[in-house]
Amino acid sequence: MARARWNERFMATTRGRIVALLRRGSGTVNELADSLELTDNAVRAHLAALERDGLVEQEGVRRGIGKPAHVFRLTGEADSLFPKAYAFLASELVRELRELQGDARLSATLQEVGRRAGESAGVRGADALERLGGVLALMEAQGAEVDVEREGSCTTIRGQSCPLSAVVVDEPRACNFLGGFLEGALGAPVRQRCEHGPYPRCRFEVELRRPA
Q1: Which of these, 12, 104, 122, 161, is most buried using a 10 Å CB contact count?
Q2: Reported confidence tier of residue 48, pLDDT bands at 50, 70, 90
Q3: What is the Cα–Cα distance from 155 to 148, expressed in whole angstroms?
């Protein structure tokens, strides 16, 4: 509980706001300064402190007009600032499923469990489009920073931070649970296009159409 209160206080500070912005994606000093309405030098000072604390690291250099700009991202350690109380239990359950059912069936089982959870989540709406808002609210309540992009009837749901990251890093197929959850809650087929690796990010595509 004390740790949770400390995290809340930290996230309310300027450095916490920088961490929150970088949780949504990597950024340069100028981009962070614009978002926070601070000077570049003030942001650099905060980034230097966050780097010393092991929460931020340089990802690379972005080249364009003018001088190259350093790009910053969160480290894996920064992920501990966000609630992950489920991580140990979820990892053990996925490991047990893999041992009981084998690799071949693990993806399908996680998808089905997620679908049932989505169906029982109680998201209201006459169709998938109406239910989308409730689904996104549920994802954000679980720690996901979610963006939505629409192109024609295709809607892409991007999580800038994966709510299952502590599990997905070791077992990428855990994303099938979220894919199944979205299918069950929306009542529409979902395609998983998640990014895996040390910094997993959710990406799901779904066809959302108004009934004729």
Answers
A1: 161
A2: very high
A3: 7
Separation between Cα atoms, residue 191 and residue 115, nearest integer Å: 13
Give the whole-angstrom CA distance, residue 62 versus residue 46.
Answer: 20
Q: Which tens digits make up the pLDDT trace of 52-68?
A: 988 899 988 887 676 78
> Looking at the domain covering 87-207, what would its CATH class be?
alpha beta
Tell me: the pLDDT tens digits for 91-125?
788 888 888 888 888 989 999 999 999 999 888 88
**What is the C-alpha separation between 180 and 190, in angstroms, rounded?**
8
Q: The pTM is what? A: 0.58
The structure tokens listed for 145 are 């920073």
Strand locations in the chain, DSSP E? 27-28, 56-62, 69-74, 145-151, 154-161, 190-192, 202-207
- Cα of 49 vs its chain's centroid, Å: 25
Q: What are phi and psi of 86, to 5 degrees?
A: -80, -15
CB neighbours of 212 closer than 8 A, spacing ≥ 6? none
Class of domain 2-81: mainly alpha
